Amino acid sequence: DVKVTQSSRYLVKRTGEKVFLECVQDMDHENMFWYRQDPGLGLRLIYFSYDVKMKEKGDIPEGYSVSREKKERFSLILESASTNQTSMYLCASLKQGPGEQYFGPGTRLTVT
Amino acid sequence: KNEVEQSPQNLTAQEGEFITINCSYSVGISALHWLQQHPGGGIVSLFMLSSGKKKHGRLIATINIQEKHSSLHITASHPRDSAVYICAVWIQGAQKLVFGQGTRLTINP
């Protein structure tokens, strides 16, 4: 079974802190994605990566950056956390489109 | 207007009822996905469709490419089917999924 893990299920951070969310997949997938999920807005794509050291902006990249130094690991970075970044963050991986994406369990981030 | 629209947004039914959730999209797609998310849980893929119909247990998914419409049906619904069901489309020529807002389904015993 494909497994996608995320570093934390719940996280509380203060405004202005730098926040790292990590995602690891164990199936050698080329593509990895970071989404945020908010009530009434559904899932929105923040960034994705189709190869090591490659990244593409999604629909809402402002305030975020990403890092993919190894194929299995994709990190989302909040450079200076703000309260409007309080959300559920979901990572996903995919062998190749338009196939099935495998999602991690999510990280519920609260910024106070 | 969202590229992917789901209806209804919320649905409450009694155990045993036949459930239908609808998804309409306005763009050319390579595939359509139905996903399930339980409270506090991650998201799992139920179906990926590019044409016709698929069945898995009590779940049936259909797609009409010409009408840009898909439906997810649940037969003999059960309280454990209570979840958010999400429609997502893989846009032609793109490298990403676009998601509907989800349908929150509650099945009462």
Structural class of chain B: mainly beta
List low-confidence stretches of chain B.
Answer: none
From the spread of the alpha carbons, the general shape of chain A counts as globular
Mean pLDDT of chain B: 94
Helix tally of chain B?
A: 0
Beta-strand content of chain A = over 45%
Low-confidence stretches of chain A: none
Structure summary, number of beta strands of chain B: 11
Strand count of chain A: 11
Distance between the termini of chain B: 36 Å
Distance between the termini of chain A: 37 Å
Order of SSEs of chain B: EEEEEEEEEEE
Largest sheet of chain B: 6 strands, mixed
Total of DSSP H or I helical runs spanning 4+ residues of chain A: 0
Rg from alpha-carbon coordinates of chain B: 13 Å
What does this structure look like?
- The complex is a heterodimer of chains A (112) and B (109).
- Chain A has 112 residues and is mainly β.
- Chain A is built from no helices and 11 strands.
- In chain A, strands 2, 4, 5, 6, 9, 10 and 11 form a 7-stranded mixed β-sheet that branches.
- The termini of chain A are far apart.
- The chains are: A mainly beta (112), B mainly beta (109).
- Chains A and B meet through β5 and β10 of A and β4, β5 and β9 of B.
Please describe the topology of this protein.
The complex is a heterodimer of chains A (112) and B (109).
Chain A: E1 4-6, E2 10-13, E3 19-25, E4 31-38, E5 42-49, E6 56-57, E7 64-70, E8 73-78, E9 87-94, E10 102-103, E11 107-111
Parallel strand pairs in A: 2-11
Antiparallel strand pairs in A: 1-3, 3-8, 4-5, 4-9, 5-6, 7-8, 9-10, 9-11
Chain B: E1 4-7, E2 10-14, E3 19-25, E4 29-37, E5 43-49, E6 52-56, E7 59-64, E8 69-74, E9 83-91, E10 97-99, E11 103-108
Parallel strand pairs in B: 2-11
Antiparallel strand pairs in B: 1-3, 3-8, 4-5, 4-9, 6-7, 7-8, 9-10, 9-11
